[in-house]
Amino acid sequence: RPETGGRCPGETSLRAWRSRGTSDVNRQIRILSSLLFCLLLGLGAIAQAAQIGVLGARVSAGADKTRLVLDTAGPVDHRIFTLSGPERVVIDIPAARLTGSLPGAAADDPPLVGLRSGVRAGEDLRIVLDLKQPARVKSFTLGPEGVHGHRLVIDLIPKSGGGPIAAGPPADPT
Predict the structure, then answer these.
(1) What distance in Å separates the CA atoms of residue 13 and residue 20, rounded to the nearest whole number?
(2) Stretch 63-81: mean pLDDT, rounded?
(3) Coil, strand or helix at 110
(4) Order of strands across the sheet with 124-131?
């Protein structure tokens, strides 16, 4: 091996190949990292696009109940529970976002003090109804009908006695 300087034939080309291979591997890692980043960004956009829009809401007060109707861009699942001290109704709608606005409560609305919303767990919509007094809650969904699209309907019914929700002191019986 004196003619090759003590090295095996091809050893020089092997070293050159290894050093070139390292830079190729680094380049491939950079390319794969960029592709993975783009893929994750795209998945995030798809997840956001998959959220159902809550387009708006309306409130109507009747003698025996107050009804909140949420107009939605598609069918929604929901979870409702009540809290006390102060009285509240909490509506959680998974994978939803508020694209419209919530109405303010009318001053003479018997049970409702106000409505507010926020994001829960990053992608779920939470709507909170602040109440003047305890109420039973019933909810149901409606599909498109006539000019109305999908809707989530929440009824607030007085807990005491089944009569109308008191807006003020009882009327004088005389």
Answers:
(1) 10
(2) 93
(3) coil
(4) 79-83, 88-93, 124-131, 112-120
